[in-house]
Fold this sequence. Notes:
Helix content: 25-40%
Largest sheet: 6 strands, mixed
Strand content: 15-25%
Mean pLDDT: 93
Shape: elongated
Number of strands: 21
Distance between the termini: 58 Å
Oligomer: single chain
Strand order of the largest sheet: 8-13-12-11-9-10
CATH topology of the largest domain: Rossmann fold
Low-confidence stretches: none
Amino acid sequence: MRALISVSDKEGIASFAKELESLGYEIVSTGGTFRLLKEAGIQAIEISEVTKFPEMFDGRVKTLNPYIHGGILHRRDLESHVQMAQEHDIKGIDLVCVNLYPFKETITKTDDFDEIIENIDIGGPAMVRSAAKNFNDVLIVTDVNDYDRVIEAIKEGKNDVDFRRDFMIKAFEHTAAYDSMIANYMNKKFHDGFGAQQFIVGSKAFDTRYGENPHQKGALYEFDYFFSNNFKTLKGEASFNNLTDINGALKIAASFGEAPAVSIIKHANPCGFAIGANVLDSYTKALQCDPISAYGGVVAINGTLDVALANKINEIFVEVIIAANVDADALEVFASKKRIKIFTQESKYLVQNEDAYDFKHVDGGFVYQNSDRVANDEVEKSKCVSERTASAHEMHDLEIAYKVASLTKSNCVVYVKDAAMVGIGMGMTSRVDAAKCALLKAKDLGLDVTGCAMASEAFFPFRDSIDAAAQAGVKSIIEPGGSIRDDEVIQAANEHKMALYFSGTRHFLH
């Protein structure tokens, strides 16, 4: 038996090779891997002894050779293949262990295009694909985390075709992801990220119980191990719908840095948000905005879930809690609650991945774009277009309203008073309806909106929303501006002695 080992990531490779050698494998290796194995006392054969050629062109050509690929690819069950291999003195290679040049690490640390080009692996993917194609006879290993599993399977006689098939699939996933990363990098560098082909590659973090509905399958796929590193289940099982709601809640709560923000989400839309003196105060104020919708909702806590907050949340039924951190005794508060699900990032504050691109499925394909971001100074740099200017307190409320509006389904209007959301209209076909709906709900709940701030994620096309806001007692408004009737809107604000700010940036969310 013969194993070919050629790896860039050399973690654990010496131990793996020693185990293979003890199991009767002859080890063939290349370059730095060969030198490491020799230093570890392994009787490895250098690749040039097999290929009968030295490594050439600064290592660009070393394994692209019939003695290598013939050894991997010839079928042991076909007599013609076996005879041809014997005729040309090609020895079979039964196990291939390869991981590829560190392209991702290279583009992270340097912009030197020549260095980046040299870290595009050619021989590695070719060997991986050859071994994967011939999985009936060859075991392909591409993941350092699989070394122990492989050794155990060989020792126990479980290196059968089903075992090798699983590794074959993993190998093709590995090369596909690698090539996709290179293509995406080249398109980003030369085509602003929008080339003729777009590749979206994620690694499965876990299966969900089902999809949006019980008859659908579902799973969570992650970029750069974000959920593996920043999402821990403490109670329950995350569903497909839970994850989309958690995403919306977390984005809002995490948008305010180290502030003890709490957001409450129902069906992907915020129904409560506040920044109080602490997370308990924030939750109490957030809940007042719409306690009916909060029932069965998702609560995101930009801080620690402690016993006091746990007891307060436990007064109603919420389906999901996502907190930066969770105290053990707080978790005990929900021990008897079978339906609640609790997750944490085990961090001081909630963390976002800040993905550079965003995409959405449409029938027949997907639309793809740069991710939308609300700059931290967007409100601060907004232009006051009214005669009256907002106070510092009002500006803080405007910032909260503006960020919440920017992360809420269009059309939306958000009302904030004393750092707590007191009204929201979202997902409406009419912006004036969104404004009126929010005010009507606030009135029904007995919430005083007098003196509050109002934000819209897009411009007001008519002054009617301004007039309605003034009648309700709104004192400051922020919106992008850009309507052909901006002058009418500004005039209305001045008539009502309101402060009006134009941010100059629209934040639609569809």
